[in-house]
Every structure is written in structure tokens, then in C-alpha cells.
């Protein structure tokens, strides 16, 4: 990744200010919004902020648990594929189900608001928090421990 500076010399600036003045010239692919910058920012500032082990957490928290917390009502089922109304937006048509969930794969897709992802992204979009804080809140509500990664 190439970084460009936005005017002026940056040699005398502290690391936090240096990072704020640098912007990527190539768009960064985001799996979860903001995680790359926040991980880079904390590692450059010297803080030891542990990450969340999402792979371990996916085995502990299922899509069914998140849907139950959201009050999702399944209108139609075909094996592992569930259909219903999207919890992210108010459905105006009650005869069409635009929200689709595959419970074994742990992924969802809304064909109306174009939202898709896993159970953690669904939870973060519903409660309107970043993915890290939303995952910690989800673990608290389900009563399970957050699997922290201190080194990756």
C-alpha cells in the first residue's frame, strides 16, 4: 500500500499526528469498517489493544442466537435458508420477504437495502455501533466471554 502525505514536512510530528496526515492513495478493502486503520493506529501509538478472535467466536455464537435477540420472525424456510422481513429497515411490502439467512453458513443478505454479512455485522448494523464494540456488547448480552487475541 502506498501512502501520500497531505502537505508539509512530517518528520517532526508525533506518530498519532503523522498517521492522521497520511491517507491511502488506493482504497483499502474493508471486511469490517474501520478495523484496519484502528489496528494500525493503536500499534503505531504503542498501545497494546487486544483484538477479538472472531473465528473462535463464530463457533460459540450462532446466527440463530443473534436472530433470536433481534426478534426475527421466519416467514418461510427451505432447509437451512430462512426468509423474513429485514431487521435493518422497515419493510413496506408485507407480501415479499427481502431478507434471507443461511443459518449453517452464518450469513445473511437483504435484497432491498443491499446489506449482507455474518452475524456480527448484522448485530453491529442493527445497534449502530462499530463491529468491535458491537461484538463486545453481543457477548455481554449472551453471557459469554470475549475471546481476546493479545498477539496476532
Descriptive keywords:
152 residues, alpha+beta, DNA Primase, Chain A, 2 domains, 5-stranded antiparallel sheet, two-stranded antiparallel sheet, 6 helices, 9 strands, 20% strand, elongated
CATH superfamily of the largest domain: Zinc finger, CHC2-typedomain
The level-1 CATH class of the largest domain: Alpha Beta
Instruction: Please tell me the overall pLDDT.
Output: 75
Question: End-to-end span in angstroms?
Answer: 20 Å
Number of domain modules: 2
* Low-pLDDT residue spans: 1-5, 8-46
The helix tally amounts to: 6
Give an overview in words.
This protein is α+β, with helices and mostly antiparallel strands and 152 residues long. It folds into two domains: 47 residues, no CATH class; 96 residues, DNA Primase, Chain A (Alpha-Beta Complex). The chain is built from six helices and nine strands. It has a five-stranded antiparallel beta sheet. Strands 1-2 form a two-stranded antiparallel ribbon. It has a two-stranded antiparallel sheet with strand order 3-9. The N terminus is likely disordered.
Question: Can you describe this structure in just a few lines?
Answer:
This protein is an alpha+beta fold and 152 residues long.
Amino acid at each position: 500500500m502506498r501512502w501520500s502525505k497531505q502537505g508539509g514536512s512530517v518528520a517532526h510530528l508525533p506518530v498519532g499526528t503523522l498517521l492522521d496526515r497520511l491517507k491511502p492513495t488506493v482504497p483499502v478493502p474493508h471486511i469490517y469498517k474501520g478495523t484496519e486503520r484502528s489496528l494500525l493506529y493503536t500499534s503505531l501509538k504503542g498501545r497494546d489493544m487486544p483484538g477479538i478472535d472472531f473465528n473462535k467466536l463464530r463457533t460459540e455464537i450462532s446466527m440463530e442466537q443473534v436472530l433470536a435477540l433481534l426478534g426475527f420472525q421466519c416467514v418461510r424456510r427451505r432447509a437451512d435458508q430462512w426468509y423474513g422481513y429485514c431487521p435493518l429497515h422497515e419493510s413496506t411490502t408485507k407480501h415479499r420477504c427481502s431478507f434471507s439467512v443461511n443459518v449453517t453458513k452464518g450469513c445473511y443478505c437483504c435484497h432491498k437495502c443491499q446489506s449482507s454479512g455474518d452475524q456480527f455485522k448484522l448485530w453491529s448494523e442493527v445497534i449502530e455501533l462499530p463491529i468491535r464494540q458491537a461484538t463486545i456488547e453481543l457477548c455481554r448480552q449472551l453471557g459469554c466471554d470475549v475471546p481476546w487475541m493479545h498477539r496476532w
